[in-house]
From TrEMBL:
UniProt record similarity statement: Belongs to the major facilitator superfamily. Proton-dependent oligopeptide transporter (POT/PTR) (TC 2.A.17) family.
Native organism: Panicum virgatum
Compartments, record wording: Membrane
Pfam families linked: PTR2 (PF00854)
Entry's transmembrane regions: 51-77, 89-113, 133-157, 178-200, 206-226, 363-383, 492-515, 535-558
GO molecular function terms listed in the Swiss-Prot or TrEMBL record: transmembrane transporter activity
Full protein name: Uncharacterized protein
Keyword field: Membrane, Transmembrane, Transmembrane helix
GO-annotated cellular components: membrane
Matching InterPro entries: MFS_trans_sf (IPR036259), POT_fam (IPR000109)
Membrane topology value: Multi-pass membrane protein
């Protein structure tokens, strides 16, 4: 295996990083994801059955929990990139997340209802003890805080071990393979969580069911720390974050100053001493005011540094800032997928009302979400191993399809999946009413005769959409962001999912309030058979269609993807790389 440019430049780090670190990082992620997803998959049932929350209120709680979990990674990313480094943030986040899981386990052990005669006679008359809900929400908060450290850093930390920091075709392909197989392995771990862990929770109860993720999280933390001597640990760099702010301030301060003519050469702009002179690009030209060199004698010190970095910035700083700002419109198209991915608690409630026996085995309601993960995993494997090479020869992209093509296709599939979900729910509801189950309590009543396998196609479409759009977003942010801000780039996906969860919470609350007027049950009552959840899915399908149109506009306005486009001839040359390229792929997979 070739050593990276970073390793060549740093003799002491030659034994750091590389493929041998990947098992520790991947193992940590596997156990962490099994633990986390093993808790979230069944949470809607835990809230509705143990805490007696309504379906709509439980959905709002879970949406808000997901929102907080997805907002915090941006702070974890800043902490990692600018303060203490990715390794420390991942380790700290794992410990905090473990603390939250311990508290959640306690909520299952300690009594949840006040001991009253009414409660003994009828479950619906029970009152939750005052301290149980704060304890529950504290556990959610700690798990969110922990994931805020793990999620933005783990993938970037793994890529750091392999990235040669060049734009060669092999490096691009290696990173794509790592990204794809990273998600494949995590997908398999989520499948395990959605089947084995969820089954334990249903068969053995919440106490045993919540203890399993807790033990797995301890294992994840131990494995990650065990690999510490081998990791390549990039130092935190405050200058990347500060430089971003400096460019905004400097361009504002110089807003009234004249700009050089378009034909001006690199001498008209400030480049860091020792770097290759360059001129800024024309995109977001307003920001070029920050790097215009107007009076070198006054603006530069004897060693060539800017006397006032809040008025004069380097061309590199300006271009890095542009890279961050340019992705924001495309990033905003990832908010709606966050809503769709986050509303999977409703299919769980649907499955709860349906026939879930396959042969002699009854499948837990929360396990049906595994079909989306299986689809994601299969697609990633097929795309990476069978489709990338022929597509790269046709398109000239080392990744096969461009990142924006994959992201756009994913958005289309999200909209189609919601339309399919609306149709399935309409058929399910009609069948339940025909069977006389309109007023049956879905928590205690008998299931209908319709098989829950009817939910599988919508789950599969959602999984394929996630494989195309969400993984495409990750690669897009990693390739377009400055390397010193990789964790922040990775956190943008989580941030979009967070806004999507907030949007989902708002949509559920608005639809619930608007459709309950006049004493009606509304579209989203606790009894699904009395509601119109199919209309809710139709609303999401319409929003998804509008989002596709918005994405097309944003993708057109963005222009060329930056460094990672390769010529078709170059992509074909990769085919002739032969065994060396294949061995690199196998090494990353292992």
């Amino acid at each position: 295996m070739e050593v990276s440019a970073m390793e060549e430049a740093l003799p002491k780090a030659r034994r750091k990083g590389g493929l041998r670190t990947i098992p520790f990082i991947i193992s940590n992620e596997i156990f962490e994801k099994v633990a986390t997803f093993g808790l979230t998959a069944n949470m809607v049932l835990y809230l509705t059955e143990r805490y007696l929350m309504s379906s709509a209120f439980a959905a709002v709680v879970i949406y808000n929990w997901h929102a907080v979990s997805n907002f915090l990674p941006i702070f974890g990313a800043v902490l990692a990139d600018a303060c203490i480094g990715r390794f420390r943030v991942i380790a700290l986040g794992s410990f905090v997340s473990l603390s939250g899981m311990c508290l959640l386990w306690l909520t299952a052990i300690l009594p949840v209802y006040q001991r009253t005669p009414e409660c003994a006679a009828r479950l619906a008359d029970c009152v939750v003890v005052p301290w149980q809900v704060p304890l529950l929400f504290t556990s959610f908060a700690l798990m969110s805080l922990g994931s805020g450290g793990i999620r933005p850093c783990a993938l970037a930390f793994g890529a750091d071990q392999l990235d040669k920091r060049d734009n060669s075709t092999r490096n691009v392909r290696t990173l794509q393979t790592f990204f794809n197989w990273y998600y494949t392995v995590l997908g398999l771990s989520i499948v395990f969580a959605a089947t084995v862990v969820v089954y334990i929770q249903q068969a053995r109860g919440w106490v045993v069911g919540f203890s399993v993720p807790m033990v797995l999280m301890v294992t994840a933390l131990a494995l990650f720390l065990l690999g510490s001597p081998f990791y390549l640990k990039a130092a935190a760099d405050r200058s990347a974050i500060v430089g971003f702010v400096q460019v905004l301030v400097a361009s504002y301060k110089n807003r009234h100053e004249p700009m050089p003519p378009e034909a001006a050469d690199a001498s008209s702009f400030y480049n860091k001493a020792g770097s290759k002179p360059r001129t800024p690009t024309d995109k977001l030209r307003y920001l070029n005011q920050a790097c215009v060199l107007r009076n070198p004698g006054k603006e530069l010190s004897a060693d060539g540094a800017a006397c006032d970095p809040w008025r004069l910035c380097t061309v590199q700083q300006v271009e890095d800032t542009k890279a961050v700002i340019r992705v924001l419109p495309i990033w905003s198209t990832g908010i709606l997928p966050g809503l769709i991915v986050g509303q999977q608690m409703f299919p769980t409630l649907q499955a709860k009302t349906m026939q879930r026996k396959v042969g002699g085995l009854e499948i837990p309601a929360a396990t049906f979400g595994v079909f989306s993960i299986l689809t994601l995993t299969v697609w990633v494997a097929v795309y990476d191993r069978a489709l990338v090479r022929p597509l790269s020869r046709l398109t000239g992209h080392a990744r096969g399809l461009s990142l924006r093509q994959r992201m756009g296709a994913g958005l289309v599939l999200f909209a189609v999946a919601m339309a399919m979900a609306a149709r399935t729910e309409s058929v399910r509801r009609a069948a339940a009413i025909t069977e006389g189950l309109r007023d049956s309590d879905p928590r205690t009543g008998p299931p209908m005769h319709m098989s829950a396998m009817r939910l599988v196609p919508q789950h599969c479409l959602t999984g394929l959409a996630e494989a195309l759009n969400l993984i495409g977003q990750i690669e897009f942010y990693y390739s377009e962001f400055p390397k010193t801000m990789s964790s922040i780039g990775m956190s943008l996906l989580a941030l979009g999912l967070g806004f999507g969860a907030l949007l989902g919470s708002a949509v559920v609350a608005i639809i619930g309030a608007a459709t309950r007027s006049g004493g009606h049950d509304g579209w989203l009552p606790s009894n699904l058979n009395r509601g119109r959840y199919d209309y809710y899915y139709l609303v999401l399908a319409v929003l998804g269609t509008a989002n596709v149109v918005y994405f097309v506009v944003c993708a057109w306005a963005y222009g060329e993807e930056s460094q990672n486009r390769v010529a078709a001839a170059d992509a074909a040359a990769v085919e002739e790389d032969g065994k060396g390229g294949e061995e690199q792929h196998k090494a990353v997979i292992i």
